[in-house]
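Continuing from the previous page...

OK, I double-checked the sequence for HTH cro/C1-type domain-containing protein against my notes and this is the correct one:
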Amino acid sequence: MLDHQREGQVPRRSGDQPPAAYVIEGTFPDVKLRTDAPVSAHFAVAFAKALKAAVQAHNGSLRSIAKEAGVTHPTVTRILDGQTLPDLRSISGLEVALRTRLYPTELYQQFSETHSGSNEPPGEAEQSR
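Thanks. Re-ran it with the corrected sequence; updated structure tokens here:
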């Protein structure tokens, strides 16, 4: 059984680092990721960008949004900073609290096997070669 060190932290069986560990340029979530960043890091960037925009459009504080979502303020901050992958509880709670879709539902299409098994979106893979 895997231990959860802190609420909102997702255990990593694959050895993946937190999404921010793969940043080569910018400040999370407005970043460029390393070419070896796992798919989960790309999803975390897209989710954090959507979350950041929704929080800015919302009239409440980050603490009040977290409370309404049923997650802690530090959990939301770690997601926005790329220090953790959001779990389903956090994703669903934040979507309901902010009344908007945050999860990047179409991003999977950019990671199909037709892109040489790369873990990065096709445009980025071609630029880094």
